Amino acid sequence: MKLLLTTLFTLTVALSQGHATTRPNVVVVFIDDMGYSDFSCFGGSVKTQHVDQLASEGIKFTNFYVNSPICSPSRVALSTGQYPHRWRITSYLNNRRDNKRRGMAQWLDLKAPILARELQKSGYATGHFGKWHMGGQRDVADAPAISEYGFDESLTNFEGMGPKLLPLTEKPDPAGGAPIQGRIWADAERLGKGFQWMQRSQITTGFVDKALGFIDQAQTSNKPFFINLWPDDVHGPFWPPLDKWGGSKKALYQGVLDSMDEQLARLFDRIRKDPKLRDNTIITVCSDNGHEPGAGTSKPFRGAKTWMYEGGIRSPLIVWAPGLMPKESIGTANTTSVLSAIDLNRSLYALTSTIPSTTLDGEDLSQTIIGKSKASRKAPLFWRRPPDRPGFSHGFKEDNPDLAVREGSWKYLVNLDGSDPQLFDLPRDPGESRNLAAEKPGIVKHLDKRVRDWNAGMPKDGSDPSYSKTGALPGTHFVNPIGVGQDPWVIRDTKEKRYLWCFSEGDRAITIHTSNNLTRLGERHLVWQAPDEGPFSRQVWAPELHLLDGRWHIYFAASDGKNRNHLTYVLRSRNEDPLGKYDLHGPLQTGDRTSENLWAIDMTPLTHKGELYALWSGWDRPDSDRQFLYIARMESPTKLATRRVRLCDNLDYPWERTEPPPKGRGLNEAPQVLTQGDRLFVTYSCGASWLPSYKLGLLELVGDNPLDPASWQKRKGSIFQSTSETFGVGHSCFVKSPDGSEWWQVFHAKRDRSPGWRRTIFAQPFKWSRDGRPLLGRPMAPTLPFPRPAGEKDFLLKLPYSSDLSSDHSFFGHPQFYRSEGQSLTLGSPPEHPVNEFRAGEKILLNGMLPNDFTASVTMNFNRVREGRGSGILFRSTAPSVGFDAARGYFVGIKPSQNTVLLGKMDGSTWQELTRRAV
């Protein structure tokens, strides 16, 4: 038996070591904006001798496609093996506003299946050297670092998060003097950590140098390596070395192409001349999309970069793997196999013996890649045009079709509305010059259905006319956010069949809003105002309203204006009316001794087996700024009976930190009780409330004694966290729909990604698992129409319409600055008892659906200031919105200095005047 075990152990080690050295190395060279026929081995006029040599030792593929005619989505497809539309990256990633306008994500979701990540898990050394452009560009400075996608090392350009090379420029002086020096994209210094300035004409050398060092390290570690070598070249603007400078755009481009070929040679030679690498390395070379018009070429194809014709999506592919290829395949051209970047991705899984995700769109054509087969992709290939590239630009005076599909020899293109169908037999007509749609109606019908079915399964973007429609919101739906504010609390008043919302008002008062609907805050009632001075006169935070022992209680934290002095107080109603008068109790003794007060916020009651407890977030000692969750039994709703007990550590898991390790600290706050059957849960917010990474964790009471920390079990992962659209989510509460059939979560989210506390209120349903666990899902996207809570009713306003302006509207802004007087409403002026400084931006939303014709009048008081800039009112008929999106609609205003009334419209970023009249 001992001999057998020893033998098996030795065999296992030997196999493991052998596997580490025999799995092939992979280098993926992905060139930027190079045309199909720019390499000389594909017919180009510039001699690219080093790439040509690689092709002569490998295989050329002439029917290889990328999955988008533009850079970012093409890179997503090659990285994920999926259509990039699945991840809402359908054009180049730009600034935040433009991405949103086009219906795109801000970066590639970390949940996407990444080839590099799976190779890293399976033992490969992984490096990315070159352009990234899948997140982290322009003003999108909070995208994930490249390393988070599965790369051990990275070095990128100005469009990625991580160490980078930034371009210096030089060009000849027309007057004959010293070269003219410059630099571009300097604002990218802040994206990621570390940067180095280098001549633009030599940046590919910088990426190659890094790759060569990485190969040396991998060999020393006896690891197979995977390298993305994605140069900036040959993307414009064109800055070739001075000795290759040309006078025209095309000449400059060709100088860059020639120089890139020379700089890549060192990488090719390093692998070719190393016996340990030559026979066990795969190098692929291709371009991310077609050529830029006026620079490169894609003969014999029609179109160019961004176009759905072959010139935009057909790419040259060279695969070099002499140690894996049959001798008879080396130096040949595969002119029949049809494949794409998503198939190349899937094939690399097979060639590296790595298990792929089951969700890939690519097919395993690994035997085709290494010349052992001529098989093609079986499923059709689909494309959708970039949302910002409709055609009639870049030197082309024609429409860019919305959709395209290739199946077998047929290529079909059509617009979403069904117009301009085009059908081409590509082997016979590679230039797409003879439209056979009218002659082949059966094929057109078949391919039209295939491409439309595919497109229907993809998220919409700005290329779809239905995406940008902004018609009136159906009465059966609502959109988030439903209000401006933070720390929302809402409870169902079953006696009056209404919702009671409890808010801090300007950090100086507490209001309760009453509403029949969960998706509207309703009428505001001031129930308590802080004194002018004293220990609870400022920083009134997170009030919660609870019905206990037949009286309403409001738990809140307040201070004298200094956060270090925050304590918890309770308001108790004098009768059963939640809108009546309250008496103040506290501060509650929240220290380690029953007579001690210690920093405490976010208190909420918990009832278990007839006993009342209090949960809150507190500091472990004075001035520590270390927040933990605490519990104590209550003698009454206004008094604690026992010393506090810490429920759990605030740093059991890295995701509870305010910042990623090793920075930051643990922070737990905002506990909320949630029960289902016999199971009792406590959700809590963790991380930094001022950052987009704020999220929810979950505790469950699994023992008998809530005061025993051992009775609580913490879930290993966050149960609710940010998305690219809705971020900084937390401070949730939970309530049922009006008819009691649905559970809903109400939470706040940040309005922007900058550090701070500008937040809005969201509501969305959630479900329970079969065994009684809360399944909160993902935060809903803002402005997404969604069915109202079950039992919530709406009504249509009828003309003529009049209002007492008390309960038929919701306020969406800063409710301390409106005042109702008879049949009029005053916005933008401090009320009699202001609780905060003046701010503009008030909005009134009528709770009923507007009729088709609706007239409203407004009176503006300029206080006799004739030289004022003007003022007016914005009419919107869709849904509430925050940020620049809130400016969509029609604007009518008065310009007193010109005695003029203006009428115009705004699309969220630009203003268009429609007419003006003198008064």
What does this structure look like?
The protein is of the alpha+beta class and 919 residues long. It has 3 domains: 23-374, Alkaline Phosphatase, subunit A (3-Layer(aba) Sandwich), CATH 3.40.720.10; 484-787, Glycosyl hydrolase domain, family 43 (Tachylectin-2, Chain A, 5 Propeller); 856-919, no CATH class. Strands 1, 2, 3, 4, 8, 9, 10, 11 and 12 form a 9-stranded mixed sheet that branches. Strands 18, 36, 37, 38 and 39 form a 5-stranded antiparallel sheet that branches. The chain starts with a helix and ends with a strand.
SSE order and pairing:
Blueprint: H1 2-22, E1 25-31, H2 49-56, E2 59-65, H3 71-80, H4 96-101, H5 115-121, E3 125-130, E4 153-155, E5 164-171, E6 180-183, E7 195-199, H6 203-220, E8 225-230, H7 249-272, H8 275-278, E9 281-287, H9 310-313, E10 314-320, E11 332-334, E12 339-340, H10 341-351, H11 366-369, E13 381-384, E14 403-407, E15 410-414, E16 422-425, H12 441-456, E17 477-478, E18 483-484, E19 489-493, E20 498-505, E21 509-515, E22 523-529, E23 538-548, E24 551-559, E25 567-573, E26 582-585, E27 600-608, E28 611-619, E29 627-636, E30 639-640, E31 645-646, E32 668-676, E33 679-686, E34 695-701, E35 712-714, E36 730-736, E37 743-750, E38 759-768, E39 774-775, E40 786-787, E41 809-811, E42 818-821, E43 824-827, E44 844-846, E45 871-875, E46 889-895, E47 900-906, E48 911-918
Parallel strand pairs: 1-8, 1-9, 2-11, 2-12, 3-4, 3-8, 5-7
Antiparallel strand pairs: 2-10, 5-6, 9-10, 13-14, 14-15, 15-16, 17-40, 18-38, 19-20, 20-21, 21-22, 23-24, 24-25, 25-26, 27-28, 28-29, 29-30, 29-31, 32-33, 33-34, 34-35, 36-37, 37-38, 38-39, 41-44, 42-43, 45-46, 46-47, 47-48
Helix pairs in contact: 2-7, 3-10, 6-7
